[in-house]
Amino acid sequence: MQGDEIKDLIGRVALGDRMAFAALYNQTAPKLLAICLRILKDRGQAEEALQDVYISIWQRARSFQAASGSSSAWLSAIARNRSIDLLRARKPIADELDSAYDLADSAPDPERQTVTKDEGRRIDTCMEELEADRAVAVKRAYVEGLSYQELSDQFGVPLNTMRTWLRRSLLKLRECMER
């Protein structure tokens, strides 16, 4: 298609001629898609950019000055600028990697892990100082979450006795941990 024909079609598009717009699209879409594809390097994004390009052509056809330049250059500039805008809108991979370093790590740091393990060993040592049935009752109550009633049923002791066992056991554990 000749430059004069494209200028004529753009002039008719400026007047709202849909048939001229369809003809312009059919004649120029392959070249403009190639421009978008060369810049974006992704066919899906290039096709989306091309759609935006033709929306822009429809809206800005009145601003085209036939005497000031080539119609092909005007169309190509719109395609190039829209593709570059989309390219800039992409978040660079390097920025994603940099932001990953700023994410907080929910795992405890090595020092905290060491302290936690040390406390765990101390608790185990202190649990060994309790009578065997009292230690089992404490574990079942505070680790497994059994109620006082469930524990009293399992150990065959009255409910108040179980409460006393647990209270005294916790006091002994506190004394041991404070040493």
Automatic annotation (TrEMBL):
Keywords: Sigma factor, Transcription, Transcription regulation. Pfam families: Sigma70_r2, Sigma70_r4_2. Residues 24-91 form the RNA polymerase sigma-70 region domain. InterPro entries: RNA_pol_sigma-70-like, RNA_pol_sigma-70_dom, RNA_pol_sigma70_r2, RNA_pol_sigma70_r4_t2, RNA_pol_sigma_r2, RNA_pol_sigma_r3/r4-like, WH-like_DNA-bd_sf. Residues 121-173 form the RNA polymerase sigma factor 70 region 4 type domain. Belongs to the sigma-70 factor family. ECF subfamily. This is Sigma-70 family RNA polymerase sigma factor.
